[in-house]
């Protein structure tokens, strides 16, 4: 659950969104909660040690894959799938390092019977006591992001997810010349890898044109670009899901006929300098 829970007396209303929290604070209907960053982190179920262990495990797996390549040993398709997920895992932990994990108990905020030091608002904002309290979520969503503030240029970060998706798919293309039990399976892997790589790449192209290079939104071609972005997910999303599923199935069934070098272990002593 977590978050800031709004109460009207003993009645639970909803979990406050950042905008809702700010509006009630400006209206003087709530007091700013007396909670520190340390108290918020204390509610978290994760710490630097637990996150660090995951990072060490992920890094060790990536090092093993690199070492196998350096010694000419084969890497299986399922290891390649894991390598792609490990790459996303590293980015996720970097972005979520300070995010509290599994906070279950919310911070209680009570509506005040009388306003305190209200701040002047725009005419467009409603000042009615009850109508300004919106009924919404009873918990904080697991996947939630604040609206992007275009005044500080953060809208250019919209390109990050599709770029990561493209990198994720490109890792699967490493197995382009791997040994597969049949030619059909090799062809299927290549087709699925291309789909998983190019579909996020199409969205990356859009965000590069609009966000990075500031494509003329008043120009004659922008409506066509918007229509393309709207229609693209209709065939692309099912194709992407099927491609991901196909890669997973391929990686599992390929275990029935692995090349001999896939069973060999890394000789770590060969990386040590000889005296």
Walk me through what this model shows.
With 275 residues, the chain is mainly alpha-helical. Helices cover 48% and strands 5% of the residues. Strands 2-1-3 form a 3-stranded mixed sheet, with no helix packed on it. α4 packs antiparallel against α5. The longest helix has 30 residues. The protein is extended, with a radius of gyration of 26 Å. The chain starts with a strand and ends in a 22-residue tail after the last helix. About 6% of the residues have low confidence.
Number of strands: 3
Strand order of the largest sheet: 2-1-3
**Topology as a string of helices (H) and strands (E):** EEHHHHEHHHH
End-to-end C-alpha gap: 59 Å
> Regions with pLDDT < 50 over 5+ consecutive residues?
119-135
Share of residues in helices: 40-55%
Structural class: mainly alpha
Report the radius of gyration as a whole number of Å: 26 Å
Mean residue pLDDT: 77
Q: What portion of residues belong to β-strands? A: 5-15%
Bulk shape: extended
Provide a count of the helices.
8
Sheet of most strands: 3 strands, mixed
